[in-house]
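Q: Is it fine to ask for two folds in a single conversation?
A: Yes, each is treated on its own. Send the first.
Q: Here.
A: Result:
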Amino acid sequence: MSLNHKIFPLLLLAFLLPPLINGSPHPQRGGNHRHGRPVESVAVVGPPTITTSLDNSNAFKPQPTDIIDNDDTTTISTPIRGSGGATTTTTGPNGPIITSSPSTGTGGGKRGLAYNSSSPSLQIFANTEITWVHNWYSSPGDAPSEFLFVPTLWSDESPHSDNWDTLAAGHQYLMSFNEPDIVGQANMQVGEAVTAYKNLMFPLRKSGVQIGAPSVSSGSGTNEAGIPMGTGWLGQFLDQCDDENTCVADFVSGHWYGCPSGTCSVSADVSSFQSYVNDLIGTAKGRDVWVPEFQRYGDAGGQQEFLEAVLPWLDSSAVVRYAYYMVVDGILTTGGQVNELGGTYAGV
């Protein structure tokens, strides 16, 4: 068979498969939104390639995939997860709720892990400063029960919202909508997100769970769709979601990524990160603050220096929980084992 005869069927298949798998894009969100679950993304090894200055965080992070694992969309009972510290269980209107006291140590119970299906076993971080984990998804996969798992409602669209009530049951904290201010992520106008939050997140608060406002990027201004970015988006959301009877957020959440590799000094990235976190704290207006996704780009030495500077600062700050991006070979692990950078982060 000639090369052309071999290539043509593949091109035809590539053209036909996405509509069959994904369905049509959300009419208000444009074709850049891809359905799927970030937990199934493929590992990317090596330094990121930055494509825009507006959206550094989109360059080297889990992207939703086109193929959905059918097992993930099955209605299941979510087990009560551990906490890394002492735990107690109480019964609310919708079932058991786990609460925890943070483990002792320099991390103060704040330090967590971001992971996905390409990450090695999180058991390698047992008996460290790590107390909690998240994977941009609603089910923990094979995460060890000694860590508190925090589910995420990645967006309000199917399949992410499928069985959400069941998957969210029994957890102490829930995060919502991943980077709605970025077109390639949840991609939501503020008003649209408020409506979805009222329908999908707020009802769960009655069971005693703490719910988080959508996790915004560290961008500024507006994106290519005209949507405000970063704390600008978050501030508008909180203004529209500030009623104990209909819509409220117990904590806010923000993501930060540093300059493209080699373009900023470590000290500049440290300053930028601290400035963003302080802006996030100010925008929160007394709500708890989480930073469940942050990273300095560049080589391991620069990241090491960055973490050595920001970890003590975070542990003494108003930030309640944080997670460095991410558990994958080339960042926090090497050959499936904790590397030097991972050891610094985990406090070992």
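Q: Second one now.
A: Result:
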Amino acid sequence: MTVYKSRKKPTNQVRIVCKHLSLYLIYLFCVLIYLYPPKSFHIMAWLSSGSSNAALINNLKSHGLITSDRVAQAMLGVDRAHYAPTIPYQDSPQPIGHSATISAPHMHAAAAESLLPFLHPTARVLDIGSGSGYLTHVLANLVGPEGKVIGIDHIQPLVDLASSNMTKSGSGKEMLASGKVRFVCGDGREGWREGAPYDAIHVGAAAREEHEGLVEQLRSPGRLFIPVGEYSQFIWVVDKGSDGKVKREKGFGVRYVPLTDKPKG
């Protein structure tokens, strides 16, 4: 005769622990969904890599990450291979040395599209954390012949690298020679007052907080595109109206390298 022993029922303490664990997992899942929403921007971004610059831009367009023909043409006019050292047509950030990175192409597209209404023919633009110079060149393509774009970085070798990269194309050489594009070394967190006011300011690294000095350097009207946060980062779009009033709008979650002092040593 076989004797079956009955299983012990879980104690109330075990039930409570399991309940709390379930609630914690649900909460964690919700936080992840909030920070990294599973919609087209984040999913399609990783599917947009191409075998050439044209293929990359076409994929970004087909996935809805570029919606403006002006932005598409501006990005087609800049070969990313001149600015990204390893796999230029992959839609992901890449190191460029000195603890800096070049952002993913879909983030450059998002910034350009956000700033587009302020990139008129005579616009003055400041690109903070210009790195290897890619987005500075794209922004220069989006303003007219009378427009000016200043790229600022706090690491002199990157300032030199950006200038050198622009000379790899005829249009880049011409922009540097004419003064339409200029690269300077300085603390981007303080902006660049010499060229202010700006119709558009782009920040390519995550600030711990929004810097009021940058808002002050905006023209009225003008727009600032800036990632803000340390562990949890979001894009903030800051508009200064023609009346000087400032409006701030929180956008999507991102992951940028921090906007900091230059590395020591």
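Q: Anything structural to flag on that second result?
A: Two points. Strands lie at 94-97, 100-102, 124-128, 148-153, 181-185, 198-203, 218-228, 233-240, 246-254. Residues 29-41 have pLDDT under 50 and may be disordered.
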